[in-house]
Amino acid sequence: MKKIIKTDKAPAPIGPYNQAVLTGNMLYISGQIALNPETNELETEELQKETKRVMENLKAILNEAEMDFENVIKTSIFISDMNNFAKINEVYGSYFNAETAPARETVEVANLPKFVNVEISAIAVKS
């Protein structure tokens, strides 16, 4: 059975999907972009701040499911320019313990929703 996870501390979906779906002990979090859930405005003026907003949106969804970044087992990072990888990775890495960080891939794509620079999705497991 699946349970839809929703929180007003992360942006509402901008299409026909949910913020996250919990099935059993597995949480599948939809890709998050730098939408501020309070203002519904994009925070893309500076790449590190944009990445931090994405990670904070992921954190809010994890917390709603009574999890945190230690529960994350896999992430997918989509970026509009691979030259931005180091800046994004620096912020992303600050949310994880290096020894227990999740598996991931980082992919450069032609465009992202609302033409943002980074989108991150995650899979987490509740032990």
UniProtKB/TrEMBL annotation:
One of its GO terms (molecular function) is deaminase activity. Residues 44-75 form a coiled coil. InterPro entries: RidA, RutC-like_sf, YjgF/YER057c/UK114. It comes from the Bacteria. Pfam families: Ribonuc_L-PSP (PF01042). Keywords: Coiled coil. Gene3D superfamilies: RutC-like. GO terms for cellular component: cytosol. NCBIfam families: Rid family detoxifying hydrolase. Belongs to the RutC family. This is Reactive intermediate/imine deaminase. It comes from Salegentibacter mishustinae.
